[in-house]
From TrEMBL:
This is GntR family transcriptional regulator. It holds the Pfam family GntR. Residues 7-74 form the HTH gntR-type domain. CDD domains: WHTH_GntR (cd07377). It comes from the Bacteria. It comes from Halomonas campaniensis. One of its GO terms (molecular function) is DNA binding. Keywords: DNA-binding, Transcription, Transcription regulation.
Amino acid sequence: MTKILQRNLYREVADRIGDLIEHGELAPGERISEKQLCDRFGVSRTPLREALKVLATEGLIELLPNRGARVVRLTLKNVKDTYDLMAALEGLSGELACQHISDAEIAAIRQLHNTMLVHYRNRDLMPYFQVNRQIHESILAASNNDVLQEMYSNLSQRVKRVRYSKQMTERYWSQAVKDHENMMAALEKRDSQLLGQILRDHLCNKIEVATLAGVIDTEDDKSVANS
């Protein structure tokens, strides 16, 4: 019983640090202060260090030999490479979802979509992102492919800062909503090829948004690695 509780503790710590990274409280390239995080979360260094190891495997931080850890800088190449894989998986999830999804599941996604549109009209960015994420997760779940969902989730953790950046141009936001309108139409028609293509293309403009927000490091990969 003690071991299970301990495992849950470092997973919870990892999730909280991940939230700090996602929301920009821990910036790209920033060194991790173990003492500050231990004090903040009220934990000892043992579960904190286990949490850092987990986050390193998830691509959110990098462990530095004898120098602690720091938040990973997302380079343009790294994000593009990750998005290539995510786009393929998300497109496949849409194709599979059209084969397996029920009318009730489509209705639930339509309701989420309508809620997302309300947040868009009110310019409520963070609630918009939350519902947006639920829509994509619902389509992934409807694919009925556990391995696909696991792989996608692992990749998504790496670029969460990019996908849900607090800065978004009006042009991009408007295009994203149009994509979702087309996505819903294809899903309701169960047009697997069309939905798959829309989902693959949907990630294309997110790199531009992240670059504007300063989330992606545009320096050369070698200079980043040696910094």
